[in-house]
Every structure is written in C-alpha cells, then in structure tokens.
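Example 9 (inverse folding). The structure is encoded as follows.
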C-alpha cells in the first residue's frame, strides 16, 4: 500500500485510487485529445464492419451534442463519454452497450436535438432504450419535483425499472459513475462530498448487489477519500509503518503456496493484495476494533481450474499454517445471494504466531464472476446457456421492484429499497436449504414476508433451528427458519414495531390499508385530533378540505379521507400531514388577525375624525386595474396626497389605502395576493 506523499492531498482530493492499494478494475486511461482514435482502436478488432459504421456515427453525434461543453477540469466534455465507452470495451461488453455508453449523456445535454425517438431512428431500439435508462428525468424537461430529494428518488426509480428491463443499463451507469469519481478532484468541495455520499449510499451497494466486486471496492475507497479526508489520511499513516512487513509476509506466503501447489500438481495462479481502505475503516469504526485486531489486512488469492482443486488447495494450505478458529467460510457450498463463490480462510503466518493473513480460493470462473459480476455474462461470451444464472442474479431486483406495490410515494419506494437491499445482511436458510438474505436485526416475521406476503400475514409461530422462538427473535447467520401458519391468523399492529425490513413493514401496512378502510379513517382522524390538541389547534380548524390540495398532490391521493386512512394504517405519519396543514392554519389565522386589526383601526378613525366611506371619485385615489372599487384611508398611517401609497383589499370594506412606509406594512405584505397598486388622481 502506497503512502501519501503530499500532506495537502487529504483535503484537496488529489489522490488516485491506486494510492489505496486497490487495483482498478478498468484502466485509468489518460484523457484523450477528443480524436476518438483510442476508442476506435479499442473496438476495431472485435467489431464487425457494420458495428464500426454504427460506432463512427455515434462518435459524430456525441461530438456534436457535446460541442463547446467543458468538464470541471477544463477538458472537452466529450472525453468523459468516450472514456466510459473505452472502459466498457475493456470490460468486453457488446457493441450496443459500448455505443450506448458513448451516447449516455446525449439526451441530458442536448435533449432539444436528440431524444429517445431520434436515437431509435438512428441506432435502433436496443441502444436508444439503454441511453434513456441512464438519462435523468430532471434533465429532460419532465421534472416537476419540489425538492432535490424527490428528483433523486424519481431518477433512481427510473433507473431501477430500466435495469430490470435491461441489466446492461447498470453496467453503463456504474462505469459512468466510476469515471466521474476518478475525476471528482476537479469539482468544488460541496459537489465532491454530495456526489461521494450518493455513490456510497447507492452505487457502491448496487455494484455489490450485482457482484461487481472490484468496481464496488474502488468506488468505496474514492468515497472514503472525499467524504472523510482526514480519517483517510490518518488510516494511511497508521498502516504505513507496517507496510514493509506486510509486503514481506505477503511475498513469503505467495511463494510458499505456489511452490507447494506446483509440487502437488495443482495448476494455480497465486497473487496478493492489501485490503481496501474503506473496508478497514468500517471495521475500525463499526466493530470498534484496532488495526491489530483485523485479521485480513493482507490477503492471498488462489485461482485454480476446478472445484476439486479448490478443496485440495485448502487442505494443503491448512497443513502449512495454523488456521484461526471461526474464520473459515465456504461460499462455494453456500454462495452469497449476489452469487459470489469462494472459500475464505484466515491463518497465522510463520510458526503459527505471526501476522494473520486471509486466503481466498476459487476457480477461474468464480474469479471472473467475483470481479466483474453480471458483466462477465458478456465479457466471456457466456451466451444464452448462462441466461438462467443471469436471471438468478436479478432475482433480488425483481423482488425489490415489488416494493412499489406497497409504497405510497416514490421517495418511500426508493428508501425501502435502500434500507432492505443496500444494507448489511444476515444469511439464513429455509428448511429446504434455500439461502435468504435479510437486513441485520431481522426477525422470523421479516423472513416470513420475504418468502411470501400470505406466509407473513398468516404467521402463527416460528421455529429457528428446530426450536420455537418469539416472533421478535433476532436472526443470526446460518439459522434455519421455519414458519408455522394458520388461515385464521392475521397481522397485529404491534408487528410494525417488531419487523426490521421495510418490505415487511410495507406489506403489513398494506394489509391494514385494505382490511378496514372505515376503521383506518376513524383511527387517522383520532390520531390527528390528538396531535392537534397538544399543539393548541382544533381538528375542525385544521382539516378544512381546501387545506389538503398540496398534501393530496404530494402523496398522490384523491381526497382527504385517503390521507386519514394512510395515517390510520401507518402509511404516513401525523407529523408529515400536520406540517402541511398547520402551514395553512397559521396563514389563515394571520389573515384573520390582520383583517380584524385593519377594520378596528378604520372604525376607530371614522369615529374620531368623522371619515365617511368614500368612493373612487371622492377619494382622489386610483386603484390600478379596478376603477370602481370603494376606498378608505387607513388611520394607522393617515396617507396624504403626494405620499407613496399602496392598497390592501379588505373583506367587504373595499380597499384600504396605506403609506408605503406604514408601520403595519410588514403585516400587510404577508398576504401579497391582497396588495394592489394605488396612486393619487392628479
């Protein structure tokens, strides 16, 4: 692992991914001049003449769409999509994916001249739909989002749906994000942190879910650098003194394993790597460990030809060094849910008391899948024969998309996916041996709802490893879970406090939503009334029908009773509803107070000065846009001819004329819709 050689780099973001000891999955290619020679050269040997013709057309259009645009670095923008296309080519992707990668920003940056229909006409449906899949809604003129958060949620929803339709979309998106992260140093600090956080929360977990381990690790290390630069630098400095010893141990282990495997007649590729920094940082922070307590700071990878060779190599290695108890994992026998397969074991070096190191043993096929994930389907031309395997890798996404049926808003839908599918997991088994991954802290109820909605809703008891357990039991890795159901059983509202996964919560709420609408409406009204009372408002005052317009639009509901029902079954919180309703109530109260104040002042002025109600002709004031309105002069500021004035439309008493420097002007301006222009008739 290379040590930082510039103190300022932790704050300026100048380090590259190689500095953290994590070899990039794709070459960090140098910026080109925009001539596209590198892209053409990368594709020439594997593209057919017709594919090369399509590529040349795409190059022309991409250059035209991005003409005059610059990146934050000052380089021509075209360099970015060109580099994405080159990276996709290096991954061995098919011609359509590479061309879609080259065109991936065309609709966003030149939507006036290039839309999906035009791209379809030029390049066909396959390429056009991939480009559309990675295009943000906010850049197409379709966005009507109130907040950045809502816009991001809609964009992620669109991307998830596009990935489910064509998984190559995620390969383009992750490659695009990887190149952007590699060049993030040129952005301002606010943008660096924002992009890095989004990458860490969404794109790195997405890479992990699709088995693209190398991209995930590089993204995580780059995010670590930009989000926590000081911690990044401290960790580099903490590891640096041990670096020489790490490398000596690593080289000794590699040469020893290589010699013994060769002597045993096992053909193998043996190499080593330092553990990537963010993984170390997570263990230090989340598990409250010290560097000395982390056993896999260095790791050796043994890649062999067959599964039998994997186990033969394992036995040989266990005879060479002392294994550490509890540190053996067989992901070949029990693959991870992202289809990762490998044997992991951790051992003490030397005579059994030296530095610990990890060994990962896998076949070449397993190694390709671990590094490239779903991209290996195209990279190694696995063809239709592996379509079933690809479908299995996408099973989690189809399951995730079902969450939309149980979510009231797009934001909730995306948040549910994030919490359930991009989190830390426990791996449990059905009685038949099927592996189920659940968020850490999940219960038998979460397991039941993952199996099927009806299994969850009819859960009566649960067994773990053959013994009856409470429904709030926290599942552990390798637990065998069995659910006992009854047609007479039904969900309890207390289950919402027990379950951990958003999927289970959403399905329970959906059950209550459908089970008894009238009860939910009444319950929702009671919950709102109680909260309103605590804040000094009445239910009748706060729930006038015309106050609900913004809420109905936000939650995609048709009438106030939908809102009450959603509160009743837990679909939305009282806080979410009252925040909007009380804005309307407070405004109405201000208007009423101001109206009463104005009328009181005017009435008092008329009594003291004998002011009569005056029409437009006698008042000597002209109301812009309405010459027939009655006017009266406000006593609070007593305007005189020549003063700068404005008009305030009262309720049933015409227009009240005030000086623009009236002491009540701030109150008046709270309701701009009732302010009118006024001037003296000269």
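The amino acid assigned to each position is listed next.
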């Amino acid at each position: 692992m290379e040590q930082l050689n510039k103190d300022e780099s932790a704050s300026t973001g100048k380090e590259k991914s190689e500095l953290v000891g994590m070899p990039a999955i794709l070459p960090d290619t140098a910026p080109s001049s925009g001539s596209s020679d590198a892209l053409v050269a990368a594709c020439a040997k594997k593209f057919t003449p017709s594919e090369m013709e399509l590529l040349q057309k795409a190059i022309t259009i991409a250059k035209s769409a991005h003409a005059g645009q610059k990146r934050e670095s000052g380089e021509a923008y075209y360099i970015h999509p060109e580099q994405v296309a080159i990276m996709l080519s290096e991954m061995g992707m098919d011609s359509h994916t590479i061309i879609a990668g080259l065109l991936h920003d065309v609709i966003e940056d030149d939507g006036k001249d290039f839309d999906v229909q035009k791209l379809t006409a030029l390049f066909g449906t396959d390429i056009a739909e991939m480009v559309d899949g990675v295009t943000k809604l906010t850049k197409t003129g379709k966005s009507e989002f109130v907040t950045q958060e809502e816009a991001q949620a809609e964009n992620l929803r669109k991307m998830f749906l596009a990935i489910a339709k064509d998984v190559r979309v995620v390969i383009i998106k992750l490659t695009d994000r990887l190149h952007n992260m590699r060049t993030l140093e040129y952005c301002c600090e606010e943008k660096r942190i924002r992009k890095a956080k989004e990458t860490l929360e969404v794109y790195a977990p997405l890479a992990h879910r699709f088995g693209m381990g190398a991209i995930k690790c590089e993204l995580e290390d780059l995010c670590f650098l930009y989000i926590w630069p000081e911690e990044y630098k401290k960790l580099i400095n903490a590891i640096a003194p041990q670096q020489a010893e790490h490398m000596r141990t690593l080289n000794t282990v590699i040469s020893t394993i290589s010699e013994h495997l060769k002597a045993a007649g096992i053909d193998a590729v043996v190499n080593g790597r330092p553990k990537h920094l963010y993984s170390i940082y997570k263990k230090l922070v989340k598990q409250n460990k010290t560097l000395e307590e982390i056993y896999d700071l260095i790791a050796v990878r043994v890649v062999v030809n067959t599964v039998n060779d994997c186990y033969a190599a394992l036995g040989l290695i266990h005879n060479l060094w002392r294994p550490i108890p509890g540190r053996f994992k067989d992901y070949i026998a029990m693959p991870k849910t992202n289809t990762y397969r490998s044997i992991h074991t951790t051992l003490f070096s030397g005579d059994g008391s030296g530095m610990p190191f990890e060994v990962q043993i896998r076949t070449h096929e397993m190694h390709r899948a671990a590094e490239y994930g779903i991209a290996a389907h195209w990279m190694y031309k696995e063809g239709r024969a592996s379509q079933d395997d690809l479908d299995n890798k996408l099973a989690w996404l189809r399951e995730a998309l079902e969450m939309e049926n149980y979510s009231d808003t797009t934001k909730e839908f995306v948040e549910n996916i994030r919490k359930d599918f991009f989190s830390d997991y426990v791996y449990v088994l059905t009685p038949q041996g099927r592996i189920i991954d659940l968020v850490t802290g999940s219960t038998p109820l979460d397991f039941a709802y993952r199996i099927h909605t009806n299994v969850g809703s009819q859960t009566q008891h649960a067994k773990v490893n053959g013994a009856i357990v409470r429904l709030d039991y926290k599942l552990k890795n390798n637990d065998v879970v069995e659910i006992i159901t009854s047609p007479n059983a039904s969900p309890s509202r207390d289950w919402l406090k027990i379950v951990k996964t958003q999927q289970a919560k959403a399905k329970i709420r959906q059950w209550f939503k459908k089970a008894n609408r009238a009860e939910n409406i009444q319950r929702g009204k009671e919950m709102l009334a109680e909260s309103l009372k605590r804040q000094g408002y009445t239910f009748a005052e706060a729930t006038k029908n015309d106050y609900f317009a913004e809420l109905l639009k936000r939650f995609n509901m048709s009438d106030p009773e939908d809102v009450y029902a959603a509160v009743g079954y837990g679909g939305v919180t009282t806080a979410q509803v009252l925040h909007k309703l009380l804005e309307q109530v407070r405004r109405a109260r201000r208007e009423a107070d101001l109206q009463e104040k104005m009328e009181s002042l005017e009435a008092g002025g008329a009594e003291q000065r004998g002011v009569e109600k005056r029409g437009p002709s006698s008042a000597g004031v002209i109301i812009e846009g309405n010459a027939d309105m009655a006017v009266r002069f406000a006593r609070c500021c007593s305007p005189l001819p020549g003063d700068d004035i404005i008009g305030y439309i009262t309720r049933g008493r015409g227009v009240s004329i005030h000086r623009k420097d009236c002491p009540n002007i701030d109150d008046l301006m709270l309701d701009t819709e009732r302010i009118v222009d006024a001037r003296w008739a000269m």
